[in-house]
Design goal:
heterodimer, A: alpha/beta, 5 helices, about 45% helix, B: alpha+beta, five-stranded antiparallel beta sheet, five-stranded mixed beta sheet, 15 helices, 16 strands, disordered C terminus
């Protein structure tokens, strides 16, 4: 079973995303802080990471940067989950090493398609 | 003079003629006579010789008869032979028979020609012939006199003719010209001039006439110029006077006559200084002019003949002849009687004024002190006012900050509200999809209501966030290139299902046009307009058209018009005015059924005007439909908008 790491501090959003991804056949591991997310990413080697940007402690941008700079496999796709208000920070997010992004609100009926679309885009 | 010319021309002629005649008379004629006489003698002698020769045989033969006949014939033939005598060797006369002594008085011109008649050495006789030359010479002399007479006549005729011609063509015209120039010298231009030919005299007369005309014209011009100059001088109201080096008046104008009471004739030649109350000063005045070249405002007083005095100011300067030599002083006087009066009045007025000023100054000083005191009060008041203004400005700034704070508060509040809503909507939709197990109809109905309410609340919050950001000036602008047609297709794709369900007809006429503006904001507007059109239309059609409007000048940009029309319920005119205000919901039969935030068109207007630099307008007929016209620049100029986004 494919492992997915979700870094998200909001429990409801995490549950909503987990629900949809589990249904699509993914195994979910989750972290509520950036530091924890970096640690899990190194240890568990997920096939991709969903990264919320607004996090307590280090934010999603810093976490992404650390994962990319680690000795472990740094090529894992990282998909940023941004809010509408963050449109101005898009360049910073991509510069930190995110593979792609989608915007909140999370629509559980569409999220899997959105993720697949981003992954497909980066492969081609 | 006239005779002189004639004599000069004719005397040499006369002299030459006399010389010629003397030569003819004294030399040529006597010589000619002698020659003729000589020639005649030779001729006669030859004749006599031939006669003597012819007689020889006759004498030898003693044919005396024949000799007589021949000699008679000879005498008869030659009328100038007055006698022939033939004597034989013995001295006897053979001829004439009648011995007639030859006339003693032979006359001056009677010549006797004798020939001895010889035959070999035998002397036979002697022939003498008397010949009178006078008739022959007389003829010749007469011819000479005739020639002389003719020559005399010709010479005299020529002299007379020359004299006449000279008189007519030269002497008389010259006399006339001489007369005319004499008259001209006296100033008379009308003397008669002779008619002219094209000879030298004609040229002379013509050039004299030309000269006379030129002088006449020049004199006329001079007269005009002179009278102009004079009239200028006379026109001056100021007394003018010219003075020579000796201080004598040389010319004046009428004003001078008036001010002195003397006429020009009386004034000219008299001393300039005689007409002033202070003659020494007057003298010193013109001397100063001769010394310095000019004086200005030299004050003198002219005394009139009747004794009254005129104060004047003199301006004077020297004037020069053509050689640049100073020949006099030209002085103009200005009557300053009035000025003196005024000066006096002024002085009086001045004194009065000074007195009054003094009075007023004391008054003013008092008032000034009072004023200073009230000024102090005023300054205090102004300071108070400034203080108040400052306070007001501070309050105003606080108010602005507060307003911004309010908007920011709403924006962040709304964000906080959105996160839980996301869960409500998310889990409702999962459950409604029966991912967590089957639901009965009632559960489905209830959950649908929860989902609908959640979505409505979300769109309300989204609109509030957008409006707050725009009002707080913290909205972001993302300008990108995109195709207008694509944007409209994307907008309409969101409503495909609903349009199909309602059975509405859709008309789209969208240009493929490259836009460079905030795509997401334009999409937001389009979604709002399309959503309204679909919501409020039950039957008929919805149309979307785009029109490109090229700018007519360089200052305004090219724009695109997007018109969204429907055949829906439409609006009353009185409702149109408040259509674009916040929280406006037009009451209608449908509005009960149709949900809306009341912020949609307000947001469209905010975005269209404040972000996209455009405008939105509406036309509507109640019961027939509405038409919204969005008009925005094809290319968004970012200058003004960047300022706003810089507030972030």
């Amino acid at each position: 079973m494919k492992k997915v790491l979700i870094v998200e501090d909001n429990k409801d959003n995490l549950d909503l995303m987990s629900y949809s991804l589990k249904r699509a056949g993914y195994e979910i591991i989750s972290a509520e802080t950036g530091e924890e997310g970096v640690e899990l990413a190194m240890r568990e080697k997920p096939c991709f990471i969903l990264m919320d940007i607004n996090l307590p402690g280090i934010d999603g941008i810093e976490a992404t940067r650390r994962i990319r700079n680690s000795e472990a496999d740094g090529n894992v796709p990282i998909i940023a989950i941004t809010s509408y208000a963050m449109r101005g920070d898009m360049e910073k997010i991509l510069a930190a090493g995110c593979t792609g992004y989608f915007e909140k609100p999370i629509d559980p009926l569409k999220i899997v398609d959105q993720i697949h679309a981003v992954l497909r885009e980066t492969k081609t | 003079m006239g005779l002189g010319l004639r004599l000069k021309v004719l005397l040499p002629l006369l002299f030459l003629s006399l010389l010629f005649l003397s030569y003819l008379y004294g030399y040529y004629m006597p010589r000619s006579m002698d020659n003729i006489e000589e020639e005649h003698r030779v001729l006669v002698e030859r004749h006599v010789d031939s006669v003597a020769d012819a007689i020889v045989p006759l004498l030898l033969a003693h044919q005396l008869e024949t000799i007589y006949e021949n000699l008679d014939a000879l005498l008869k033939e030659n009328t100038d032979w007055t006698g022939v005598e033939l004597v034989d060797a013995g001295g006897r006369t053979i001829y004439p028979l009648s011995v007639l002594p030859l006339p003693g008085d032979l006359g001056q011109d009677v010549h006797i020609i004798e020939r001895q008649i010889n035959y070999l050495d035998m002397h036979l006789g002697k022939l003498s012939v008397k010949v009178d030359f006078a008739p022959k010479l007389l003829r010749t002399k007469r011819r000479h006199w005739e020639l002389m007479t003719v020559l005399m006549i010709i010479i005299i005729g020529y002299i007379v003719a020359t004299g006449l011609v000279l008189d007519r063509s030269a002497r008389r015209p010259i006399n006339l010209v001489a007369h005319a120039s004499k008259r001209l010298a006296e100033g008379d231009f009308s003397a008669v001039l002779p008619k002219t030919g094209d000879d030298e005299v004609g040229t002379l007369v013509n050039s004299f006439r030309g000269m006379r005309d030129a002088i006449r014209n020049y004199q006329a011009e001079l007269k005009v110029a002179n009278s102009y100059n004079r009239s200028l001088i006379e026109a001056s109201l100021d007394p003018l006077v010219t003075i020579n080096a000796g201080g004598k008046i040389t010319d004046v104008n009428a004003a001078t006559e008036k001010v002195t009471g003397f006429v020009r004739k009386e004034l000219i030649g008299t001393d300039f200084s005689d007409y002033y109350t202070e003659p020494d000063e007057a003298r010193e005045g013109y001397r100063q002019v001769f010394r310095d070249g000019a004086v200005r405002d030299y004050a003198l007083e002219i005394r009139h003949r009747d004794g009254h005095v005129t104060p004047v100011l003199y301006n004077a300067s020297v004037f020069r002849n053509e050689g640049g030599e100073v020949i006099g002083v030209f002085a103009t006087a200005r009557d300053i009687t009035e000025l003196k009066h005024m000066e006096k009045e002024l002085r009086i007025l001045n004194e009065e004024l000074e007195e009054r000023v003094k009075e007023r100054t004391d008054d003013l000083e008092k008032k000034s002190r009072e004023l200073q005191e009230s000024q102090k009060v005023l300054v205090n008041t102004v300071e108070d006012l400034n203080q108040k203004t400052l306070e007001l400005e501070t309050a105003n700034n606080k108010l602005k900050e507060l307003d911004q704070l309010k908007s920011m508060f709403i924006a962040s509040m709304s964000h906080e509200l959105r996160t839980p809503l996301n869960s409500i909507i998310g889990f409702s939709s999962i459950t409604l999809e029966e991912w967590s197990g089957p639901l009965n109809d009632e559960q489905k109905r209830n959950l649908t209501a929860v989902l609908r309410s959640g979505r409505h609340l979300l769109s309300l919050i989204n609109d509030v966030i957008d409006i707050s950001k725009i009002e707080a000036g913290i909205h972001e602008v993302m300008v990108e290139y995109f195709d207008l047609h694509g944007l409209i297709a994307e907008t309409l794709s969101m409503f495909n299902k609903e349009i199909e369900e309602k059975g509405l007809h859709l008309e789209v006429e969208a240009l493929h046009m490259n836009m460079h503006t905030d795509r997401r904001r334009l999409l937001q507007c389009m979604v709002n307009l399309a959503s309204n059109a679909v919501k409020f239309t039950e039957t008929g059609k919805i149309s979307v058209r785009t029109v490109f409007v090229k700018s007519s000048d360089v200052l305004s940009p090219d724009v695109v018009e997007i018109v969204v029309s429907d055949t829906g319920i439409g609006m009353k005119e009185e409702d149109l005015a408040k259509l674009f205000s916040a929280f406006t919901r037009i009451p209608s039969p449908l509005s009960m059924k149709v949900r809306g935030t009341g912020l949609g068109l307000y947001l469209v207007k905010k975005i269209a005007t404040e972000i996209l630099s455009g405008a939105v307008t509406v036309q509507s007929v109640f019961g027939q439909g509405s038409s919204f016209r969005l008009r925005i620049p094809v290319t968004l100029k970012q200058g003004g908008v960047d300022e706003k986004s810089a507030h972030r």
